């Protein structure tokens, strides 16, 4: 029997990506200039820049991604900044239009579909939280991302962030590890693993202090 709250196939993960992109696009309609320019949780990027980054990810093929990384000498920050600038519009409205065009587009430049689901889940929260917008993705969606993040360091040091901790979701089946307890909503656990210190406000257990210290010393979020 299939375990509840599990996205088992690539097709299911891709559908979830489209759902989250569409939900974000709807939330972005009608933002003021000040809101578009507001700092996101993704540190040096504004709301508009995060949206442009998401568009770039959906529009960049593996070949173009590899060439861009080579040109940036595998400096992911430089690579991301260049692709972001390419896909940002002349106005926020243009940036939103370009993002809406990729809602049904490819998951991302590589076959790590769960990672690209994490990309839209995390960056959507990067945008929503500073703007006071609230959306909790389906538990199946956040659980798939949490499991991927807990299993390895990919674009973020997610596995490293929770090493030696017992991590438990309060709203779904996700759990992993042993040690000091880190407990809370799956979305908040995902955000914590992605390097967002703000997520610690939603978590409980002795593991919160451990995670917070690691994020404080671990540098910027991607």
Q: What does the model show?
A:
This protein is mainly alpha-helical and 222 residues long. 55% of the residues lie in helices and 5% in strands. It contains eleven helices and three strands, in the order αααααααααβββαα. It has helices at residues 10-28, 33-36, 47-59, 62-71, 76-87, 92-101, 113-131, 139-151, 158-161, 186-193, 207-217; strands at 165-169, 175-176, 180-184. It has a three-stranded mixed sheet. Helix 3 (47-59) crosses helix 5 (76-87) and helix 8 runs parallel beside helix 10. The relative contact order is 0.14. The model has no long low-confidence stretch (mean pLDDT 89).
The whole-angstrom Rg is: 17 Å
Strands of the widest sheet, in order across it, are 2-1-3
How would you describe the shape?
Answer: globular
β-strand number: 3
Fraction of residues in helix: 55-70%
Q: Give the count of helical stretches.
A: 11
- Termini, distance in Å? 37 Å
Mean of pLDDT: 89
Strand portion? 5-15%
- Biggest sheet architecture: 3 strands, mixed
User: Would you list the SSEs in sequence order as H and E?
Assistant: HHHHHHHHHEEEHH
Ranges with pLDDT <50 over ≥5 residues?
A: none
Structural class: mainly alpha
